[in-house]
Amino acid sequence: MMKQFIYLDTDLINSIIAQEEKGLVLEFANEDQTVNGKTKRRLGFIKGEAKAEGGLFSFAKVSAALSGGGDYETSSSRQIFLKEIATKILHDAAFDEAYKSIKKTHNLDSNEKPTLGEFREIKKSFSIIDFVYLEKLFSENKLLNFFKKQDKERIEAEAKTEVDETLTRDQRRHNKSSIEQEIKNRVDANNQQYDGIVETLQALKAVIPFNRMLISEDAFLVPLEDKYFRDNADVIGFKHSGKLTCIGYATNILGDEDEKPNDIFTVFQNAMNEVLRSLLPTVDSKIYILHPLAVYYVYGDDKE
Questions:
Q1: Residue 121 and residue 239: Cα distance in Å, rounded?
Q2: What does the DSSP 8-state code read for residue 72?
Q3: Strands 30-35 and 119-125, bridge-based pairing
Q4: Contact, 137 vs 191, CB < 8 A?
Q5: Distance (Å, whole) CA 289 – CA 223
Q6: How far apart are CA 215 and CA 118, in angstroms?
Q7: Are 105 and 172 in contact (CB under 8 A)?
Q8: Which of these, 206, 226, 201, lies nearest to 280 by C-alpha position?
Q9: What is the pLDDT of residues 109-155, one digit of tens each?
Q10: What b/e sequence results for 57-70 when a residue is b if at least 16 CB atoms lie within 10 Å of its CB, and e otherwise?
């Protein structure tokens, strides 16, 4: 089984591993040394305390050897390139260690909706909502005007066919103004649907403090922070779709009936939550906010 990560929360991974490994600290850095007038560099080293053998630490030593090897003379661009590769390799392996740690205490495969703090591994088709990308599309109404123009031509053609098939020439001439008004009403109603999309987008963007998120039909909402994307965040909404695997834990449940403080701030927040629930296309009465550890595609055999 091979994973293609599009999102990886390395801070959360480090936190989980630090608790499991009793204070493991990993660091990648550049180390310079001059010999016989030539600059030689070694990329990647580990510092901190860790277990003497096994687990992530054994992999880290291999990764450090990969990035450093022996002394060599090279260009700065190659150094940066190797450092990036070593860092990504380490993060991917670190995910596996964090995953094993989570699986010890959480039933990731449970079909039950999570309670607060519970991890879930969700494999399904998510809708990727990219507010930045959508805002660019609709910013100058060029795309909306294009859709409206196409639909207007379609509605007029359908109406003409309908009129020609049901009315005589005299009836068409006698009812010309009413026919034109009916076509105008249909076009206006269609345009309102497009305007409603923009209003919904603006409302969602105002309520959700993230540029991008995942949403599933069964009410899992996964907010995504730009800094953890493994792909270019600006093309996520256009480039990715289909079945994804998301591992995360529940941080909030919108629509939860548990008793909550009745202060003005909580009342206002609950009102915003209700707006969000009314806007999102889910079949559940509650919305489960998941803080994602990772989002990725799976290739090959999914059995472990």
A1: 23
A2: B
A3: unpaired
A4: no
A5: 8
A6: 18
A7: no
A8: 201
A9: 898 889 999 999 999 888 888 888 877 777 667 778 888 999 999 99
A10: bebbeebbeebbee
3-class SS of residue 34: strand
**Verdict on whether the full-model pTM lies above 0.70:** no
Characterise 86 by phi-psi region: left (phi > 0), alpha (psi -120 to 50), beta (else): alpha
List of long-range contacts for 103-111, beta carbons under 8 Å, 24+ apart: 106/249, 108/247
> pLDDT tens-digit profile of 223-274?
999 899 988 887 777 777 778 899 999 998 887 655 555 666 666 666 666 6
Q: What is the Cα–Cα distance from 160 to 186, expressed in whole angstroms?
A: 13
E strand intervals along the chain: 2-8, 30-35, 38-43, 119-125, 127-130, 212-215, 220-224, 243-254, 287-299
Partners of residue 187 on adjacent β-strands = none
Q: What's the CA gap between 241 and 129, in Å, rounded?
A: 10
